[in-house]
Amino acid sequence: NGGDPSGAQAAAATAAWAAGGEASARALSGRPTVTVVAAPPLDPDRPAWSESRKPGRGRRRYEVVGANLERPADDDELLALELGAHDRAAVAEWLEAMALIRVFEERAAPLARAGKIPGGMHSAAGQEAVAVGAVRALKPTDIVTSTHRSHHHSLAKGLEPAGIMAELYGKAGGVLGGRAGHLHLADFSIGLFGSNGIVGAGLGIATGAAVGAKLRGRDQVAVGFFGDGGANTGRTWENVNLAAMWELPLIAICENNLYAVETHLTAVVSNVTIADRAAGFGLHAVQVDGQDVVAVHDVVAEARERALGGGGPTFVEARTYRYSGHTVDDPETYREADEVETWRRARDPLVRAARALEAAGALEQGGLDAVLARAEETVAAAIEFAESSPWPDPATAADGVYGIEVNLEGKP
Amino acid sequence: NGGDPSGAQAAAATAAWAAGGEASARALSGRPTVTVVAAPPLDPDRPAWSESRKPGRGRRRYEVVGANLERPADDDELLALELGAHDRAAVAEWLEAMALIRVFEERAAPLARAGKIPGGMHSAAGQEAVAVGAVRALKPTDIVTSTHRSHHHSLAKGLEPAGIMAELYGKAGGVLGGRAGHLHLADFSIGLFGSNGIVGAGLGIATGAAVGAKLRGRDQVAVGFFGDGGANTGRTWENVNLAAMWELPLIAICENNLYAVETHLTAVVSNVTIADRAAGFGLHAVQVDGQDVVAVHDVVAEARERALGGGGPTFVEARTYRYSGHTVDDPETYREADEVETWRRARDPLVRAARALEAAGALEQGGLDAVLARAEETVAAAIEFAESSPWPDPATAADGVYGIEVNLEGKP
Amino acid sequence: MSSRTMTLSQAFAEGVAEEMERDPAVFVVGTDLFIRGGHWAQVKGLGEKFGRERIRDAPISEAAMVSAGVGAALNGMRPIVDLNFVDFVFGAMDEVVNQAAKIRYMWDVPVPLVIRGTAGVAFGAAQHNNQVEAWFAHMPGLFVATPSTPWDAKGLIKSALRGSDPVVFLMHKMQTGLRGEAGGPDDLVPYGRAAIRRSGADVTIVGYSIMASKALEAARRLEAEGIDAEVIDLRTVFPLDLETVVASVRKTGRLVVAGESTRIGGIASEVAAAIQEACFDDLDAPIERVGALHAPIPHSPALFKALIPDVADVERAARTALYREQPTEVPA
Amino acid sequence: MSSRTMTLSQAFAEGVAEEMERDPAVFVVGTDLFIRGGHWAQVKGLGEKFGRERIRDAPISEAAMVSAGVGAALNGMRPIVDLNFVDFVFGAMDEVVNQAAKIRYMWDVPVPLVIRGTAGVAFGAAQHNNQVEAWFAHMPGLFVATPSTPWDAKGLIKSALRGSDPVVFLMHKMQTGLRGEAGGPDDLVPYGRAAIRRSGADVTIVGYSIMASKALEAARRLEAEGIDAEVIDLRTVFPLDLETVVASVRKTGRLVVAGESTRIGGIASEVAAAIQEACFDDLDAPIERVGALHAPIPHSPALFKALIPDVADVERAARTALYREQPTEVPA
Ligand SMILES: Cc1ncc(C[n+]2csc(CCOP(=O)(O)OP(=O)(O)O)c2C)c(N)n1
Ligand SMILES: Cc1ncc(C[n+]2csc(CCOP(=O)(O)OP(=O)(O)O)c2C)c(N)n1
Ligand SMILES: [Mg+2]
Ligand SMILES: [Mg+2]
Fold this sequence. Notes:
The complex is a heterotetramer, with 2 copies of chain A and 2 copies of chain C.
Chain A (H helix, E strand, L loop, with lengths): L6 H13 L43 E3 L22 H26 L14 H8 L7 E4 L4 H7 L3 H9 L22 E4 L5 H15 L6 E6 L6 H12 L4 E7 L2 E2 L2 E2 L9 H6 L4 E6 L3 H19 L2 E6 L17 H11 L1 H11 L7 H22 L24
Parallel strand pairs in A: 1-8, 2-3, 2-4, 4-5, 5-9, 8-9
Antiparallel strand pairs in A: 6-7
Helix pairs in contact in A: 2-3, 2-4, 2-11, 2-12, 3-4, 3-9, 5-12, 6-7
Chain C lengths: L4 E3 H15 L3 E5 L15 H9 E3 L4 H13 L3 E8 L7 H15 L6 E6 L13 H5 L5 E3 L4 H13 L4 E6 L6 E3 L13 E4 L4 E5 L2 H15 L4 E5 L2 E3 L3 H11 L2 E8 L4 H12 L9 E5 L8 H7 L3 H11 L11
Bound molecules: thiamine diphosphate (2 copies) and magnesium ion (2 copies).
């Protein structure tokens, strides 16, 4: 009959159809027949990351990893996170990394408003766990591409705060001499293949880097970050499809922070989740609590194993939230202030990690303050460096457009 | 627990999450939790097209309509199709329309090879049922956009064979004076909003036409055809998503004929079906036997009702097959000749319709020959017209680039 | 100043609002339009006035936005597709070039579509400062508006919304807040008609968008040196009003053409090529082209200001055309 | 003819094969490559030779093809992205312009990427006959190859595959089958170096791609009229070898620049603008630009042949530059 409880069966039928073999799920003759491609529920108690599985065989739509991926309700208290089997010292370092991002963003924002950072900036405050959780699951040789919201990824990947801050200022001491600015931070020596001003474009570069990794037989994965808004550009799905087809070592991470500038997710995603879209392209898809640094780490670590094991790419929808406006001078007329407060109270990724470490005795009570204080020192030094760094030499403005000498004037 | 047998529930949870309400599928706290978004099998005996349903609520992935959508096996006999409750005379007219397409393509092909049709052509022989079944489910005021494989859609929509043939010749008597050629057939007076040389672009124009229909409050739907290859371009999914979001009266019909030039479907679609991709964007998706003119008609008729009832767009994956090469001078090194023979023997859309009409006493035994003979006469006259039509006047080559007088020379 | 004084963005919005009232077929598609009124206030206030259907926010899907505009235009509407920064047009280039621009020619139907983008050089670094006016001027089937005043922004958008051809409408980042007088409901500005901003006898300076303003400022400064420059604002770079330039060059015998984009392949080169042919015997000196060096735009103001032409570069070019100064590397 | 005689496509394929043997980082991405060898036989035979990994068929996803190329280039590879018709680049324009072209400038890393497309006018109607060489020449960060001979096709692709900058490589539809001699493994052709195809004293005719060939044919015919034309093939439209043109114009005093694309905003205008400035005192006549009318390309040969320039148009322009004939509407 046409009833088909298993997506795997349906997928097999598809393959059989395409390949011209006997159909495994052939319906009885005589129409109408209605079949549905579906997946059975997974055992909820099986850990998401301990079992090895084939990617995108269509057997499941996507996984959901985390204690609670729903948006916090007004009366919610802080949601606990579990450290699992992780080395406490490692998680403590993740907290330090998240604190550095938080403080960097909070100190940089007023500098942008004051015009010290030309052209403003996009703050990632609130999204620290996605960047740190993901990058800490990678090897230094792995590749990361970022978006217009680039500071958390860049800091997590190891870019120096001082070099970033000077770059934001447009000073000579910036990681790219002031040429790139906050939209285009990059450092190829540490695998940071650029933050991109074009929505969805960073994922494309990660896809290409994954092609290179595969063709060169490198033990390397590429992670491409993009946002919920980026899940609407065609290039995103072209690259996801290409990665699935070519079984590339790519991890596509969608930071779903609910907003694209002032456009709410529900205005652009119809009845489904972003992970659901991805599942439709036949690659392994996961939805994870993006405010849980451990959950993000575990999902990405598993994705890395899958990719290097030949299991192909993984699509991760990380549900997160930005505390700042789209840019730091965004009027934010599109959301209530208490919405932000609720997320801070009930889901803050730093506080959640700190509480778990405290409970595990790996951080003294209130130890987060000390962590933040250390971050303040680092960021203060970075600002100091940026302030004192000279402006780039205007005579160099047209250098390095090409690798060879070229007449850039259009006059013989 | 996290087990969630119902996609509807998950979708609701998503909506709740996005909207900030209580989560309907909130997992117990304490991770890990694994949930899967899935859909229960539908009752296979329930007709696909008789029940009214809300689009894309995620409750099912997609429907499958037709006696057998698998690719024919070598030993398959002709698959029967059912006329259902349809007026036999109506189906007989559909057969006439399909015969006209078949004969047009078979007579035009050698003319293209002989250079009479400059630049060659793409034959739709084998795909007649998709065009005729879909267009016969529309009102004349409905809109159709086509692809590089444009003759079957254009003939089905009512474009005159003589005007098409002369256009293919590049003659003044062509529907567009020889300017457009076989890649760009159009007649806005009959709702044919152009065939497009750019893969996926026709769907975009149909999407826009649907925006117009909706904003103007017209009782009108737009149908955008594209191929399995077209299901790989980003613009296709941008438009599908936009239609789903804006609940446009759009019917996106993917003619999955297994090949994009010489690239086989399985080389570009990973583990899933094209309908599965569409379902991921949250609109109603259907997979239909594209060699069954009645099944196609019924699916599109239902989609039209859904759209005009405010139910939003429908995505239709019609599984079909092209008998000719990609172009009529394609070496076809990528498939076995008997693959084509198998499809002709076991699935031919004309023969299947004819047999069903014979069985119903609506066509005399062997009546298809007479139908084809009438088509031969029409096509012969069309060729005669094209041959005798004059060439367009070279002096008009640059007319009508703009609606106002403009200097096209670049010299004052 | 007159009560009709407003910013270029306000003038644009006023023009759009007037046409939306006149013609129910006019609507706007883009991002961040309904609440914010666009990132340059280009449709500020129109959301409340016309509602979500006509001030229509879209997903970040530039290709779909433009194809939605093209298809809607073919089905009786007059869409404005607002691309925010014009740099995002690259994701919709097929829809602009192979669809919007060619449909009238292929299918003999009008395509009343406006594609608005914010252009020109300012903050934002390499990917947000592309100069594409020369691209669209080279592509048959498109008109290209490059207003440099509120009056022209309003008059040109109104003409576009009453016309029947696709228009790429470029507003310079540094000029959306520029204040000036705007016309009334019936003050349309035609396409392909340049404006003589200042008449002079010694040298003709042609500019468009921000360089029209810089040319006017340069002319004021040159006056102090006793140089009487005529300043022509092209207003649209397609169609190009070459006749007005020819008439001026016949008078002055000297020509400077200024564009902000990279000199190589820019609009200034097209004007120079056409004028050297039409005015060969009138020219007393080579035509000077003012433009940027062939490089992307960097983030640091210290750098990008060195790449793009400023008022002094226009002055210098004028002096060169008058043999008052040796050519220096432009921009200095 | 020499044993090294082959078609332009064969020469291109030979160049690619030689470089693929030399450098394992070179690979090709596109559609219909592995079995067919491309629709113009541009990589024919390479599939069997190098396998599916390096002659890599992709889904119809131009944006992903180019971004795959860009990312792979940044990760140690030397990709050739074969776009089939260059018209399909519009779907990948951001990847070409905002990524490939700008990355070296932004991030100080090489982007050794070739984007190949078949260009020029032939059958295929409006959407398959776009002319984009002027677009890419106007976009900082890109090189643009426009070979008109098998020798140059091979020499230029080899140089591209040993260079470190993104190259848009355009092969004319009507010339992929053009036969001629091709160089050996070490015969590289540099970018920005024009070739003097014929030396003459009376008038300089500059062309590229198919118009270089038509210019040469025109020169042969003009000889019969006693006109001794010098013919220069630009070979790459970026960088432009203006020095070679200047030297020639100093000698002849007259210049015709021929491109197949629409005259308005074309490469011919850029050359004319630069030369009128550099050779103002050398020129005895206005620089003549030969190009197409500002219109899309229609399907009917009866129509499109009337839009694009042919040999006779080049002859006519040369006579005009020599005051032998009054200018007529070009193309006739
Ligand atoms: C192709 C493109 N379109 C539009 C923009 C303008 N833009 C910059 S960021 C942004 C919103 C992106 O939202 P999302 O992807 O959710 O990332 P988030 O800002 O939430 O981090 C938009 C529309 C752009 N940079 N690129
Ligand atoms: C954007 C774009 N890329 C590539 C092409 C070249 N091309 C024309 S038809 C075709 C194959 C399309 O396959 P499919 O969508 O399955 O349609 P079918 O030919 O099977 O009807 C390709 C690659 C094109 N016309 N447009
Ligand atoms: Mg977001
Ligand atoms: Mg196909």
